[in-house]
Specification:
Order of helices and strands: HEHEHEHEEHEEHEHEHEEEEEEEH
Number of strands: 16
Shape: globular
Strand content: 25-35%
Largest sheet: 8 strands, mixed
Structural class: alpha/beta
CATH class: Alpha Beta
Distance between the termini: 20 Å
CATH topology: Purple Acid Phosphatase, chain A, domain 2
CATH architecture: 4-Layer Sandwich
Low-confidence stretches: 6-29
Radius of gyration: 20 Å
Number of helices: 9
CATH superfamily: Metallo-dependent phosphatases
Length: about 350
């Protein structure tokens, strides 16, 4: 089966039955039922360090006005760049993040449904804190992906049904730091590492065969570089060949280009979203945004980008007017150093 061939899942089978019924009804004028249209919403890196920690005093307002943009869709995903735990031992690394339990209602109140934990901070305080993160998130109604009690679980897709569409979500980390130590194995918990490409592509093929839409959230790229690395581009091509429909990445802390690759939609990086640092000078780490994709029958038919800039509280503030237009123009320009096209 071609990776762009839609599998006959429960949704597809149901639509086929409805189509047959419509044809049988012929005289009444009933026709085939169109596949449902759904909206997927994405944003970049989120943590709750330093000045951002103060925003957790009122979880319902942590994200501020941008929450309306996050919630405006059927399924919203971000990269959670922190463990949620008070336990564990600090790893031997430069930057260490952690957050209290209030981080979960802050995310869900803002409309976030799923977070990727396959990144270079979710295990900053070891496996004990990672376990707490998953447990606390799931107890609060927040889905997690990219980690597990062993490799099988870490590489298994999280499924969410949206308007009858079975969406499979996977997450992988391509970051070198502590990769061997943090990788999930057959007998050890951890995260799904993208270096095991055979297992990565097998996981995507499995999701392709058992779902209607496959979304992949990779953690990749070079920090502060607006252009994707060769490794990013190689992995993106492999993911698409394996059957991924939508790929939205994180890690560079700046915006990276977005567009189409062999019919699939790829956004290499959405930058820092809720973040403790600021920077309107190069490399422009305060610039980010909300990406909203309209999808029908595996095809992204429309992409919308709501540009944001980090405020002095760490909250992302949506841009409007000419500032928003300029930000979108700048994002379009980043496609020049990618292997992506403007249209499918």
């Amino acid at each position: 089966m071609s990776p762009r061939t839609r599998p006959v899942t429960a949704l597809a089978a149901g639509l086929a039955l409805l189509t047959v019924a419509g044809c049988a009804a012929g005289a009444s004028g009933d026709g085939p039922v169109d596949p449902p249209e759904i909206t997927l919403t994405f944003a970049g890196d989120v943590h709750f360090e330093d000045r951002v920690a103060e925003l957790l005093d009122d979880p319902a307002t942590t994200f501020g006005p941008v929450a309306a943009e996050l919630a405006d869709g059927d399924l919203t995903m971000v990269n959670l760049e922190t463990p949620i735990s008070t336990r564990g031992q600090a790893e031997d690394k430069r930057y260490l993040f952690r957050a209290p339990d209030a981080a979960v209602p802050a995310l869900t109140e803002a409309g976030v449904d799923v977070v990727s934990l396959a990144n270079n901070h979710s295990m900053d305080y070891g496996r004990e804190a990672l376990f707490d993160t998953v447990r606390t998130a799931e107890a609060g109604g927040l889905g997690t992906v990219g980690v597990g009690q062993d490799a099988d679980e870490a590489f298994t897709a999280l499924h969410r049904t949206v308007r009858g569409v079975d969406v499979a979500i996977l997450a992988f980390s391509q970051v070198d730091d502590l990769a061997d130590e943090w990788a999930a194995t057959e007998d050890r918990s951890g995260m799904a590492m993208a270096f095991d490409t055979e297992r990565v592509y097998a996981a995507v093929r499995e999701a392709r065969a058992t779902s209607d839409l496959v979304v992949v959230l990779p953690h990749w790229g070079a920090e502060n570089d607006a252009c994707p690395t060769g490794r990013q581009q190689d992995l993106a091509r492999g993911l698409v060949e394996a059957g991924a429909d939508v790929i939205v990445g994180a890690h560079a802390h700046v915006l990276q280009g977005a567009g189409y690759l062999d019919g699939a939609y790829v956004a290499y990086g959405l930058g820092n979203f809720l973040w403790y640092s600021s920077g309107l000078h190069e490399p422009y780490s305060a610039r980010a945004g909300v990406l909203r994709l309209t999808v029908r029958d595996r095809e992204v038919t429309r992409s919308e980008f709501v540009p944001t800039v980090t405020s002095d509280t760490g909250q992302p503030q949506p841009l409007t007017g000419w500032q928003a237009d300029l930000a979108r123009h700048n994002l379009d320009g980043l496609r020049a150093c990618t292997d992506l096209t403007e249209a499918p």
